[in-house]
Structure prediction request, 361 residues.
Amino acid sequence: MSSSRKPLAAALLALAALGTASAQSAYPGIGRPATAAELKAWDIDVRPDFKGLPKGAGSVNLGQDVWEARCASCHGVFGESNETFSPLVGGTTAEDIKTGRVARMNDPSFPGRTTLMKVSTVSTLWDYINRAMPWNAPKSLKTDEVYAVTAYLLNLGGIVPADFTLSDANIAEVQQRLPNRNGVTTAHAMWPGKSLGKAGSVDVKAVACMHDCVTEPKVASLLPDFARNNHGNLAEQQRQIGPQRGIDTTRPPGTRATAPIIVAATPPAAPAPGAASSALALLKKHSCTACHGMEQKLVGPGFKQVAVKYGTRVDAEAYLAGRIKAGGQGVWGPTPMPAQPLTDAELKTLAAWLAAGAASR
Prediction:
């Protein structure tokens, strides 16, 4: 290159570099490229071919210990979890393990679909447990604990024996025993199926029914009379804004209240002499102040707060005595108050004291 062209080339290179820098720094001083260590911390997913799986091992016995300590509260000791969460285990057979297809997936009479009925790769179990469990502390399990919990779950499904240790070295062999490993298909005209884009082969079709249509079901729910007010009035436990409103469970739906609930017809009676000292003595005797402050909420509401909320009810004393005796939860938060084994006289004293304003002296 001639000497006259060298300065021009250098200037052009400088301008190009400046343009690139300005394009990458649209907001100077804000943000920076992620470091290799930061990328590594987030790049923790495990593929079906087990790429990304860390080295480690965990036994079924260790998995049972971890499960009972950190998993069973949500998923049940045996993975049955049929109350809050869907069951993880059940619905698979030894024949399914041989064929790799869960027969009950095509059985409409079977009551549900468990995780081990549906999942087709062990990596899905390992990866989800590693990234998302336990629910209250995701990513807190050690690598060997994730292997162990996965092994325990597979043992519950009869896929591995009780003395088995799952590891990065043998997980591919376990994959060949997964009940639904052959139950997946790409014949759906969507990525990555071979039928991608082919007309008439898409398995998602929205065709409106035009004649002899099935009546649209109407989903409704109700509370049976015997359970209507077991946990207190739901109307008092829900926010009064937004779409979710609690119903008044003190009476059947469609009926009107026969008496006012909030406003009293007459002012509450003045407390008897010495009522406050008697009530305060009972609070100390039964350790009520461990959960309730005088003015403010601790675990449960403050006594003054209870007095303000319920003191104007016409049936305040009877209502409060019943709540103390039966216990309950929901009105003041999720922490339950257990039933209190007080005598009728003690209940009457405390209820009258609360209804009268919860005086501290």
